[in-house]
Specification:
The complex is a heterodimer. By secondary structure, chain A is an alpha/beta fold. Chain A contains 23 helices and 19 strands. Chain A folds into 2 domains: 281 residues, Spore Coat Polysaccharide Biosynthesis Protein SpsA, Chain A, CATH 3.90.550; 233 residues, no CATH class. In chain A, 40% of the residues lie in helices and 12% in strands. In chain A, the strands form 6 sheets. Chain A has a 5-stranded mixed sheet, sandwiched between helices. Chain A has a 5-stranded parallel sheet with strand order 14-17-13-18-19, with helices on both faces. In chain A, helix 2 links the parallel strand 2 and strand 3. The radius of gyration of chain A is 36 Å and the shape is elongated. Chain A starts with a strand and ends with a helix. Chain B is of the alpha/beta class. Chain B has one domain: Spore Coat Polysaccharide Biosynthesis Protein SpsA, Chain A (Alpha-Beta Complex). Helices cover 25% and strands 24% of the residues of chain B. Chain B is built from 8 helices and 15 strands. In chain B, the strands form 4 sheets. A 9-stranded mixed sheet of chain B has the order 1-4-3-2-5-11-7-14-6, sandwiched between helices. In chain B, helix 6 packs antiparallel against helix 7. Classes of the chains: A alpha/beta, B alpha/beta. Chains A and B meet through helix 12, strand 15, strand 16, helix 15 and helix 16 of A and helix 4, strand 7, strand 9 and helix 5 of B.
């Protein structure tokens, strides 16, 4: 087998020269086309360094624009010249100046010999390609594109939209089924001769001149038109980012490239000296653990796309600051909030921690600062407990806490007495599960020995804050999962409701709650609520029962056992 | 006044660093070593009346051009005006780093890919500026015990940082992010967080004569240069500036600044630092993180690879 190479180069010609030398030494003819826009001096020094190499020829230079016919013309003329100059040539491969052979050329030749008469060219029907950007796939072939996309973007876009508006469509040449694929191919002499000598070549060329990115469609469609034996696969490893720009390979990709099943890779950063050193002096044979390598390559580059387009949910940093509505998740992980529970129970934190395995904090938004688990002054991420700092940006405080403790479910207590600045985030956050006992603020007031006027004022204040809290949770945009009980409802059947809490938090592992947290004293709650009403304040959030349950709750008819524990 | 002008040696494509400093001689050997290793080709230094021998040291370096001045640091807006002028003269068309002598740039893959690789990629991606978080590094223990001899890596004695307490908002006027937090906010500004120092910086810019820094390296004009972050939920490539401010040299510096009343708001910032930093733990707390490498900062979410892979 004797493959020849057409090399398209436009920058970093010293790297291109090194590759040309390698190919020439391996006995392969190389026909190099250098973009006419490349500076004269750079071209001259390149020409000097390859001039005397056996089999290396330089093409007449034309100006190449990305995505235009000029690239097809340069590669096709190059193939034609190579075939004419060397009747022994069996294949022509198209590479670029920033390609690097990542396997010995002998191995490449052996591979071609093992697959006689086969064209290696990625060629996919346009309906099936996932990689087209900007909504142009089929239209690449049915509209015309006389303007260079990179240099005259506005004209390009205008021309596309005009054609769309007026429904202008081109007729496809007879029998042509549009296919697309990587620009880098390796075709057999027979296939190329059929393409080059086709009687209707002039008409086909006329058509492809106005197709967009014809270098990804010309040969890819023609191999199908002439029904060649195609293996739809590029022998050049080339990865594209979410905007369709090629990823660049650096020294730290050495291992990945070594393990790749491809024969060439592009693009290589011109300063990747370690890569050039490693691959320009390869000795056969190389061993390839193919599937593992493929997965690794795919993962590296698909993760880059996800990171660049979706980001890490719940993270805000120097490179990521989503507009409202574009967060892809306001926080990094699910968490739960217990509003009012600490007024009803002693040691609720410990109880809920035992039953859910979550990390449970006290009142994170308490008026005297954050009550972190373990009464720490700082917590994960060096978050400070100090109220001033927390309340300066309460949303950042919670977002940071959830981010810093990824992998561990966080829970915290909340109340109307707490700083309310975080509520808008809680309400909008899909990760929040919020359990609310409304009116629970009545209990500490009941236990306080304050004059009724003061109690009344305090109750009214708490109720107002709580009503605003509930209103935000019920807003149309609210995404948090919310369970609400009034105090009197909750006290009616506490075991049942606590079971509901546990079931909500761990739906897949049903735990029958056999132990309940100790209740705080609440004798005289009914009289107390009535006293508030008598003082002119309606504690409606505590519950509407005219005759509140006398403690213990008369509602529990069937689970006496639970009830007893609840009392203890 | 130019002491050493070696700008004739600059070649197209060189990466240039611009630095103002005052009495930071002990930092310079490591600073130069660090940035040479990353691939900075030429340093522009404006020395503000140093008297610690740093000037002599710099004069002898073949890749440093040195200017010196006695003019007030404050009146020239923290040296930014000098540097803007030097960049206007020499920076056009170059990738430029604008730094303090205690700032050390870390970016994704910086252990394997030099600045020229980063700048090449930014060029290819049509990106003109790189956003960073200024990460305050500190020792475990009183600052007075954190001595860094000249030429030594300061992060050997001050390897700790706050990993996750940063607050980010956007400045509506210039479009830049405003990041606060870290140990200074945690310790000194808990009750006046609005005064906590800004930690957002844009040190790496493909300079154009039309560009100008508005306020230190926090804000640039035109506004588009400040949009170093993604607003659609994705992450853009970003880096971290490791800040070697909190060493034993800090108190001397603070005292001097207070005396000179030259720095921000008459040195008020410095006054506050003085007491706490010499407690048994200094700025350290139980949740401080010890610096390992850029990958650690990437995982913690303090920087991002964006779509550089």
């Amino acid at each position: 087998m004797k493959p020849g190479f057409v090399m398209l180069a436009h920058e970093a010609l010293d790297c291109a020269a090194q590759v040309a030398i390698l190919l020439s030494e391996a006995g392969c003819p190389v026909h190099v086309h250098v973009d006419r826009r490349t500076r004269k001096a750079e071209f001259a020094s390149f020409a000097r360094s390859v001039r005397d190499l056996p089999g290396v020829t330089l093409a007449p230079r034309i100006a190449c624009d990305w995505g235009t016919w000029s690239l097809v013309q340069a590669s096709r003329d190059g193939a034609e010249a190579l075939l004419a100059a060397d009747p022994d040539l069996t294949h022509v491969a198209l590479i670029s100046g920033s390609c690097l052979p990542i396997k010995p050329i002998e191995e490449f030749k052996a591979f071609l010999a093992a697959h006689p008469g086969t064209d290696f060219i990625e060629s996919v029907t346009i309906g099936d390609v996932p990689w087209t950007k900007g909504g142009l796939s089929e239209e690449r072939f049915t509209l015309t594109f006389p303007f260079a996309w990179k240099r005259r973007r506005r004209l390009f876009d205008l021309w596309v939209s005009l054609q769309r508006r007026f429904g202008r469509r081109r007729r496809l040449p007879e029998g042509l089924s549009p296919h697309m694929g990587s620009q880098w191919w390796c075709l057999t002499r027979e296939t190329l001769e059929i393409i080059l000598e086709a009687p209707d070549r002039a008409a086909l060329d006329r058509y492809f001149r106005r197709v967009w990115i014809p270098d990804e469609g010309y040969f890819q469609s023609l191999v199908r038109l002439y029904d060649r034996k195609v293996v739809s696969r590029s022998l050049t490893l080339s990865k594209f980012d979410f905007l369709g720009k090629p990823h660049i390979f650096y020294d730290d990709h050495l291992l990945m490239l070594r393990q790749s099943s491809a024969f060439f890779a592009r693009k290589i950063w011109p300063g990747a000296h370690r890569l050039y050193r490693a691959f320009l002096h390869l000795k056969p044979p190389t061993n390839v653990a193919e599937t593992a390598a493929l997965i690794q390559v795919e993962r590296t580059f698909s993760q880059a796309v996800i990171r660049r387009t979706r980001g890490r949910p719940g993270l805000i940093m120097a490179g990521r600051h989503p507009r409202p509505g574009f967060e892809n998740g306001l926080t990094a992980a699910p968490y739960s909030v217990f509003h009012g529970f600490s007024d009803v129970f002693h040691g609720f934190e410990g109880w809920i921690a035992r039953w859910t395995g979550a990390r449970v904090h006290g009142h994170l938004f308490g008026p005297n600062g954050a009550e972190f688990h373990g009464a720490h002054r700082e917590y994960a991420g060096a978050l400070s407990a100090q109220a001033g700092l927390r309340d300066y940006d309460p949303e950042a405080f919670l977002r940071n806490l959830i981010w810093n403790t990824r992998g561990e479910h966080q829970s915290f207590l909340f109340a109307a007495r707490d700083s309310q600045g975080v509520v808008p985030l809680l309400a909008r956050d899909r990760n929040a599960t919020i359990f609310v006992i409304t009116g629970a603020w009545a209990l500490p007031l009941l236990r306080d020995d304050l004059p009724i006027a003061e109690v009344r004022r305090e109750a009214a204040r708490n109720q107002k804050i709580e009503a605003a809290f509930l209103e935000q949770l019920r807003e149309r945009q609210a995404q948090a999962r919310v369970l609400v009980w009034s105090l009197l409802d909750f006290l009616e059947r506490p075991a049942e409701h606590l079971q509901e809490v546990i079931d909500t938090l761990s739906p897949t592992e049903p735990h029958l709650v056999t132990e309940l947290p100790a209740a705080k004293p609440m004798e005289g709650l009914g009289d107390f609520l009535q006293a508030l009403r008598n003082a002119g304040m309606s504690p409606h959030l505590a519950g509407e029962a005219i005759d509140p349950p006398t403690w213990p709750g008369r509602g529990s008819r069937d689970d006496k056992h639970d009830q007893r524990q609840f009392l203890s | 006044m130019a002491v050493a002008d070696r700008t004739a040696a600059i070649r197209p494509g060189d990466v240039l660093a611009f630095v103002t400093l005052r009495n930071e001689a002990f930092r310079l050997p490591f600073f130069l070593k660090y940035y040479r290793a990353l691939g900075v080709n030429h340093f522009f230094v404006v020395d503000n009346a140093s008297d610690d021998g740093g000037r002599d040291l710099l004069e002898g370096e073949s890749d440093v051009s040195l200017w010196t001045t006695e003019a007030s640091y404050r009146r020239s807006r923290f040296g930014i005006d000098w540097l803007n002028w030097l960049k206007f003269r020499h920076g056009h068309g170059h990738w430029t780093l604008t730094l303090d002598a205690d700032e050390f740039l870390v970016y994704p893959f910086c252990d394997a890919r030099p600045l020229s690789a980063l700048c090449h990629w930014l060029d290819q991606s049509g990106i003109r500026s790189l956003g960073t978080l200024l990460l305050d590094m500190y020792p475990h223990g009183p600052l007075d015990g954190a001595h860094c001899p000249p030429g030594e890596n300061p992060f050997k004695v001050a390897p700790w940082f706050d990993p996750g307490n940063y607050m980010v908002s956007q400045n509506p006027k210039y479009g830049n992010l405003w990041i606060q937090g870290g140990p200074r906010a945690r310790i000194y500004f808990a009750d006046t967080p609005e005064k906590a120092p800004s930690l957002n910086k844009i040190p790496l810019v493909k300079w154009d004569r039309k560009f100008v820094f508005v306020n230190s390296t926090h804000i640039l004009l035109p506004r588009g240069l400040n949009l170093v972050f993604d607003e659609g939920g994705g992450e853009k490539l970003s880096g971290v500036l490791l800040h070697a401010k909190f060493l034993d040299s800090f108190h001397a510096k603070a005292a001097e600044e207070i005396e000179r009343r030259e720095h921000f708001a008459g040195g008020r910032e410095y006054q506050a630092y003085h007491d706490v930093a010499n407690g048994p733990h200094g700025l350290w707390c139980e949740w401080s993180e010890r610096y390992i490498n850029w990958r650690q900062l990437e995982l913690l979410g303090l920087m991002s690879k964006g779509n550089w892979a």
